[in-house]
Request: fold
Amino acid sequence: MNAIGVDVGGTKIAAAVVTPEGEVLNEVRYPSSGPKERLLSSMARSVNEVRDGFEVGGICLAVPGTVSTVENKIIDAPNLHAIEGIPLKDELEERTGLTTTVENDANAAAWGGFRFGAGSEVSHLIFITLGTGVGGGVISHGVLLRGAQGAGGEMGHITIQATGPRCGCGNHGCLEALASGTAIARRAREVASEEPDSALGQLAVERAVLGEDVAGLARQGDEAAISVLRETGVWLGIGLAGFVNVFNPEVIAVGGGAARAGDLILDAARHEVRLRAMSPGRDLVEIKEATLGADSGVLGAAALARNSSSGEYVLGA
Amino acid sequence: MNAIGVDVGGTKIAAAVVTPEGEVLNEVRYPSSGPKERLLSSMARSVNEVRDGFEVGGICLAVPGTVSTVENKIIDAPNLHAIEGIPLKDELEERTGLTTTVENDANAAAWGGFRFGAGSEVSHLIFITLGTGVGGGVISHGVLLRGAQGAGGEMGHITIQATGPRCGCGNHGCLEALASGTAIARRAREVASEEPDSALGQLAVERAVLGEDVAGLARQGDEAAISVLRETGVWLGIGLAGFVNVFNPEVIAVGGGAARAGDLILDAARHEVRLRAMSPGRDLVEIKEATLGADSGVLGAAALARNSSSGEYVLGA
Reply:
């Protein structure tokens, strides 16, 4: 049967009816702005509108925050504070009459990649998103590792340099603090001031350099921009090497905005994994770009929708 | 039915018949010295001797090395090179007629703790051994995370200080390089030379200080020794905080020789986890000493023995 995936982002809500093969049959979008009550109405309306005329077995909301499956609410959502503390499952079930599951968006993206994307051929997949922050999720032995409270899979918050820069989570030297889009922009500003004659340095005189500027300049051959992405890739690889030793995965798929820099970051990460991870895991693992496109959020969410009676995934596991 | 657990260590082979309740019915020990053929004979003899008069459903060998379940051999065993490359499963099955499973010793200890020890009440357990090195294993959602090749669970080989000291694995700044018994001894030598008047400093004049000396002096109140263990606990906590964020476990059980220092190390680790890990995982996790005693090796091994036909654990899961 089909399922509805709802991708609740910091700026928009996207809802889609998805088939067991990962095909999107219908999709609607609403803004995610406004206070709690307006947000809940937009979510419910998006579901009730998109389901019209389709048979569906359940909904999953993928949300940008720490989900407590035990307390059935969002603990912490730095980019969408309005949903913090809301019992989303109960609210959506009441407003739509459909069985509702709530999951962290990065865990949903990991499961989506496992069902339909870069990990669809394997049983051991790590999914990493490089965006404003670093998120992710792990499928090991075919099981999505949510942890005891559903708060697991915070792959960006392992310490890789204990004396490193402060992270948004309060810790120092997290993978996120060293390899996120935010870290790229910070490093770009530093390199721009060290190398004012580079294209990166010249852009920095005109305006604030963004993470996405760096990839563009690097592709045009600017050595300063290339060095920023290479250093980011080294830090990413230091984190990934640890994951290789702990999880022995077949695939590490890297997605998110900053991953659009592709091999400019990933080649340095692959090199660092070969240097730092142990055999045989380092020889097995394939580090590649995530393959699900613009629909990855709703696909990942739909893949985690569950039946009320059996508790099984509507789209299969 | 009962199973036989075989704990293959660097100096001895211990084999025991274990009941589904974790009771040891019979046990034998042999030295593990000698070349490949003598080692194989000792393993087979220990099994055939210990099983005499008991009904058993299978054997598991817990070995101190990286096990490739795919290639069915030991990839790397730094403390027992003689077993490297041997197809142990086939050799033992031929010599004993019993279905044989081969597992990494730290993964076996983790599963033993999950079935019979500090994790027997939970579904999400991380087991860490602090010995000469740092080993471990993870049970998440009730599943032992071996990874794609059986090489997972190398918890000591995550980077926590990328610019840190070189590790035995070739990497720099691994948890093992900063929190193992070896790291304790190295740190003790440094502190002894900085504080020659301390009890630790005075011992260092007489002879080489060992890891176990430090715990003894710390218990007698020597501040220099206490500071060595506290710093070790801080590094341990930095690693554990990352595991809390990634796995959201209910219990982290710490065993192995260096763990005998108990709260002298663990209190500092707990404090660091509270500082560095995220809510709600940091509030849930209980960090405690592993509870299985001298038989932990054979218990952990027996708990991983499998039936030939069903592939299920002989002692249950």
Residues 223-247 of chain B form the longest helix (25 residues). The two ends of chain B are 13 Å apart (CA to CA). Chain B has two domains: 2-110+295-303, 121-289.
